[in-house]
């Protein structure tokens, strides 16, 4: 995979953050069951608790097995939206910096995911990108509702 994935990850994150900030004045704004703070906290926690340790485990050659990650039941009520976005941004930049230090052999190592099958480091980055895009679609629908 080319280094283009890093730009795509940064760009998608910036789009999600921009969309979250567009609706921050509307305290009732929700995407499904989650308010904007919950979405931001979920994204930060997923990056920190799922992507980072799993990618590190794959790159270390541990050949790990992963279950589907879900933090939907987490209580994000004590977290502020801006703090969550700052954490998500910092964690994503750290993850990208880490992956850039890996050689091609390390990036080609695999783990096994119950939903996605064999996953390399690069495939896990694609999964993170897909996750961003899923949330972006929900935020785009919300923005359309708020502008009516």
What tags apply to this protein structure?
single chain, 148 residues, mainly alpha, Four Helix Bundle (Hemerythrin (Met), subunit A), three-stranded mixed beta sheet, two-stranded antiparallel sheet, 5 helices, 64% helix, elongated
Integer average pLDDT? 92
Beta-strand content: 5-15%
Total of DSSP H or I helical runs spanning 4+ residues? 5
Q: Could you state the CATH homologous superfamily?
A: dinb family like domain
Largest sheet composition: 3 strands, mixed
From the helix content, strand content and strand pairing, which structural class follows? mainly alpha
CATH architecture: Up-down Bundle
Distance between the termini: 41 Å
Categorize the overall geometry.
elongated
Q: Share of helix among residues?
A: 55-70%
Extended strand count:
5
Order of helices and strands: HEEHEHHEEH
And the CATH topology? Answer: Four Helix Bundle (Hemerythrin (Met), subunit A)
The figure for the number of domains is: 1
Q: Topology of this structure?
A:
Layout: H1 4-22, E1 30-31, E2 34-35, H2 36-59, E3 65-66, H3 81-100, H4 104-108, E4 110-113, E5 117-120, H5 121-146
Parallel strand pairs: 3-4
Antiparallel strand pairs: 1-2, 4-5
Helix pairs in contact: 1-3, 1-5, 2-3, 2-5
Structural write-up:
The termini are far apart. The chain has a single domain, classed as Four Helix Bundle (Hemerythrin (Met), subunit A) (Up-down Bundle), CATH 1.20.120.450. The chain is mainly alpha-helical. A three-stranded mixed β-sheet has the order 3-4-5. Strands 1-2 form a two-stranded antiparallel sheet. Helices cover 64% and strands 9% of the residues.
């Amino acid at each position: 995979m080319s280094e283009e994935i890093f730009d795509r990850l940064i760009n998608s994150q910036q789009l999600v953050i921009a969309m979250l900030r567009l609706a921050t004045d509307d305290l009732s704004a929700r995407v499904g069951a989650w308010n904007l703070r919950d979405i931001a906290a979920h994204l930060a926690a997923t990056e920190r608790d799922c992507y980072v340790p799993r990618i590190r485990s794959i790159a270390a050659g541990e050949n790990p097995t992963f279950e589907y990650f879900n933090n939907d039941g987490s209580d994000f009520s004590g977290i502020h939206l801006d703090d969550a976005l700052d954490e998500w941004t910092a964690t994503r930049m750290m993850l990208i910096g880490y992956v850039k230090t890996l050689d091609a052999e390390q990036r080609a190592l695999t783990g096994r995911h119950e939903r996605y099958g064999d996953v390399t480091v690069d495939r896990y980055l694609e999964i993170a990108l897909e996750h961003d895009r899923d949330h972006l679609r929900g935020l785009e629908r919300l923005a359309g509702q708020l502008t009516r």
